[in-house]
Amino acid sequence: MFVMESIFTHGIAQLSYLVGDTDTGVAAVIDPRTDVEVYEQLSRKHGLSITHIFETHIHADFVSGSRSLESRIGTANIYLSSEHADYHFSGESVKDGQSFDFGAFRLIAKHTPGHTPEHLSYELYERDAENPWAVFTGDSLFVGSAGRPDLLGDKETELLADELYNTLYEYYLGLDDFITIYPGHGAGSACGADIGDRLQSTIGYERRTNHFLKFPDLKSFRQFVIDDAPPVPAHYPELKIVNADGPDIMDRLPTIPALPPKEFRQVSREPGITIVDTRSMLAFGGGHVAGAINIGDRPELSAWIGQMFSLDQRLLLIVEDEADVDRIQRLIVRTGHFSFAGFLSGGMKAWEISGLPFETLPQVSVHDLHEQHSANNELIILDVRSPSEWESGHIPGAQHYFVADMRERINGLDKDASYVTYCASGYRASIASSLMKARGFSDVRNVPGSWSAWTAAGYAVEQSEGVEA
């Protein structure tokens, strides 16, 4: 009997798959994530032995789990499109059209470049069927979107855009409408623009609704995918290198020692240390360790840790509940951070009882912000949302500073001026304001509720061209 399990990893919006045949007892995993226990658990659930691990391409947004899964289960080989990419670890080379028989089903590799030069998709066939009923599209075709061609730098972008056009218009649009697509990402991933919420679709539905499949010619398509692409996340180039070189094998989560407050403080002063406070923005605002960056305990913690800190940083964690340390650490390692200096034993309560100094970050309601902004022209409002969010409307008089760019861009701001940050809900704004505070800005405030609260209160909105709505 054919078995398929899809694994959606929140935070990085990544989709991986286990497919198997219970009669032959064999299975394959497509694009495994970093923490691979889930695939072993699912294979045992169905009485399967994983024999094949397929990589559709060199990933940019998460650390591949292929080598860890291969090491953990000991019965599988890794399969790579190595003719079109320079992998620095061992794996079986897969060619366009190559077939893999699993008993109840077959997988046939299709070279679908554009997102990357080496990208492979895998068509899924029933036993002895002439036509596929589904295709694992990796990062080439998404629900309502397609893979971006600009992750390898300007020199490669135009060529990859042309290849992506051929992949979409010659390969995918040549498939039958009934064929199901199983993509490598869902909504929230920056590997494609405006990916839809559904986790699967059909060729027919995408043919009718996917804007990427409706351009009349290559020129207009190329302009759209290059000029209108969202910003490339800062950690993507780093993770490309990690995944091409071959990620370290992770048999278990890295050791993370519990540090009492005074030892935590001492370690925090060592070179290369970053303090990440995962508590809520209001808890962080009420009191935090000097220099800490507030990235709250939500699934998107994975992506924002990757965005904000280079991989050579050693992380010190502050959590609300020590029972959550392993779960939070699991979110962090998915985007490449494996070096942990420790976590604060006893949390901020222990820090306060120890008599150690702490700082606060003022939280401002949208109502207070509205009054203060009207009365104080010197207050600088920073909108730290994405460019597309900014263009759809913002607080009148605000300046746009996308939080993902603030690691470098805030260097030119006046540290003695008064600032307030907002995003959609306050989560990203707290990242931005805590970063500014850690960099020595003297007067920074955060807005809980942010844009959602501002619009709910009925306050004025300014469009990107400066016309109030």
From TrEMBL:
CDD domains, per database record: POD-like_MBL-fold, RHOD
State its Enzyme Commission number(s).
3.-.-.-
Question: If you read the UniProt record, what top EC class would you report for this enzyme, in one word?
Answer: hydrolase
Classification via SMART domains: Lactamase_B, RHOD
Per UniProt, the keywords (alphabetical) are:
Hydrolase, Metal-binding
The answer to keyword Metal-binding applying to this record is yes
Pfam families assigned: Lactamase_B (PF00753), Rhodanese (PF00581)
Could you tell me which InterPro entries the record lists for this protein?
Metallo-B-lactamas (IPR001279), Mito_Persulfide_Diox (IPR051682), POD-like_MBL-fold (IPR044528), Rhodanese-like_dom (IPR001763), Rhodanese-like_dom_sf (IPR036873), RibonucZ/Hydroxyglut_hydro (IPR036866)
Biological process according to GO: glutathione metabolic process; hydrogen sulfide metabolic process
GO molecular function terms attached to this record? hydrolase activity; metal ion binding; sulfur dioxygenase activity
Rhodanese domain residues are 269-360, 375-463
Keyword Metal-binding listed = yes
UniProt xrefs under PANTHER family? PERSULFIDE DIOXYGENASE ETHE1, PERSULFIDE DIOXYGENASE ETHE1, MITOCHONDRIAL
Protein name, per record: Putative polyketide biosynthesis zinc-dependent hydrolase BaeB
The protein's organism comes out as Polystyrenella longa
